[in-house]
């Protein structure tokens, strides 16, 4: 069946329209019909004010309305709209979600940290194929305002944590120079490492399969492959070795914003926040040693589209929410 998903994150909003085989849900094959993404920086200033800026919320509403219309025009019979850390934490998050939902005609579900983590984990493991479904896995998703970390076996998620930082929030808090000076880098590293060591203390010491999802991870994999343009078919499952990862992070931290903007794969919505994101990737790879980091292009919107297919088959209302455990 043809379904759609909209993922409203702290940095960007993404659309996925896909055909999902309904004979073996939630494991059915997902065939992409259309995917799109736009930077909206919903979390801009959230660290300072505690609320979503009205103009930024307005832009997010316009983009969401365009995405919902596109999903309907392509024949999606059910669309699920999920929002993450920015709306979870903002004092006006519920009001913004209601306004965006009314504008685009699809209820906006503010996902809990657990819901987000489980949806991402399942999407990543199923996307990586049979080998991942037979392995112990550690999956992380670096967003703009939070970072979800989930361990599990195969497609079954186990322990999870939602770490209270992301690429946008860490950039606004720590990285003020261009390029950042050593003191800024050290402060960011200290904060992130302290949180990881405390909140991930009960997770496995090592993992045979370490997979990351999100714009930072796909950018690192694209830089490793020297791609000039984003190509999910090439990036899905790409392994970045530990030495290569360290070299990529070092290259990013030594670059200026202007230099990064000159790189073909880089975009304006990523160039300023990728340094913080790359440092989080590096520190998670230190905490969970693995032969390589696997890049996944199938993040939350793929989890949401599988959920949309399940709900459509069950005849559920778009506003309901139930995540398999």
Topology record:
Elements: E1 2-8, E2 12-20, E3 30-39, H1 46-49, H2 54-73, E4 79-83, H3 85-89, H4 93-104, E5 108-110, H5 113-128, H6 130-133, E6 136-142, E7 147-153, E8 156-163, H7 167-174, H8 182-199, E9 209-213, H9 215-225, H10 232-235, E10 239-241, H11 242-254, H12 257-261, H13 268-271, H14 274-287, E11 292-296, H15 300-314
Parallel strand pairs: 1-4, 4-5, 6-9, 9-11
Antiparallel strand pairs: 1-2, 2-3, 6-7, 7-8, 10-11
Structural account:
This protein is 47% helix and 21% strand. It has 15 helices and 11 strands. Strands 8-7-6-9-11-10 form a 6-stranded mixed β-sheet, with helices on both faces. The chain has a 5-stranded mixed β-sheet with strand order 3-2-1-4-5, with helices on both faces. β6 and β7 form a beta hairpin. α2 (54-73) runs parallel beside α4 and α8 (182-199) crosses α14 (274-287). It is globular and about 55 Å long. It starts with a strand and ends in an 11-residue tail after the last helix.
Question: What keyword list fits this structure?
Answer:
disordered C terminus; five-stranded mixed β-sheet; six-stranded mixed β-sheet; 325 residues; globular; 21% strand; single chain; alpha/beta; 15 helices
């Amino acid at each position: 069946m043809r379904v759609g998903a909209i993922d409203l994150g702290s940095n960007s909003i993404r659309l996925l329209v896909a055909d999902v085989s309904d004979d073996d849900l939630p494991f059915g094959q997902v065939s992409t019909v259309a995917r799109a993404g736009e930077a909206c920086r919903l979390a801009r200033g959230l660290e300072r004010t505690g609320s979503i800026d009205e103009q930024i919320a307005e832009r997010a509403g316009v983009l969401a309305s365009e995405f919902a219309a596109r999903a309907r025009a392509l024949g999606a019979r059910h669309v699920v709209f999920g929002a993450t850390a920015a709306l979870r934490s903002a004092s006006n998050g519920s009001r913004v979600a209601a306004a965006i939902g009314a504008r685009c005609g699809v209820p906006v579900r503010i996902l809990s940290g657990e819901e987000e983590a489980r949806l991402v984990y399942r999407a990543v493991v199923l996307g990586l194929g049979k080998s991942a479904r037979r392995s112990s896995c550690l999956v992380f998703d670096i967003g703009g305002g939070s970072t979800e970390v989930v361990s599990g076996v195969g497609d079954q998620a186990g322990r999870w944590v939602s770490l209270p930082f992301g690429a946008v929030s860490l950039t606004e808090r720590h990285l003020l120079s261009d390029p950042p000076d050593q003191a800024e880098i050290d402060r960011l590293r200290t904060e992130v490492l302290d949180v990881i060591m405390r909140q991930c203390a009960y997770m496995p010491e090592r993992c045979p399969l370490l997979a990351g999802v999100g714009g930072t991870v796909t950018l690192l994999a694209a830089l490793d492959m020297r791609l000039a343009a984003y190509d999910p078919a090439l990036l899905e499952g790409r392994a970045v070795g530990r030495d290569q990862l360290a070299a990529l992070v070092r290259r990013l931290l030594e670059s200026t914003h202007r230099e990064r903007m000159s790189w073909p794969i880089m975009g304006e919505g990523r160039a300023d926040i990728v340094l913080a994101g790359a440092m989080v990737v590096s520190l998670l790879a230190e905490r969970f040693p693995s032969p390589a980091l696997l890049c996944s292009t199938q993040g939350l919107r793929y989890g949401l589209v599988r959920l949309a297919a399940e709900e459509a088959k069950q005849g559920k209302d778009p506003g309901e929410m139930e995540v398999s455990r």
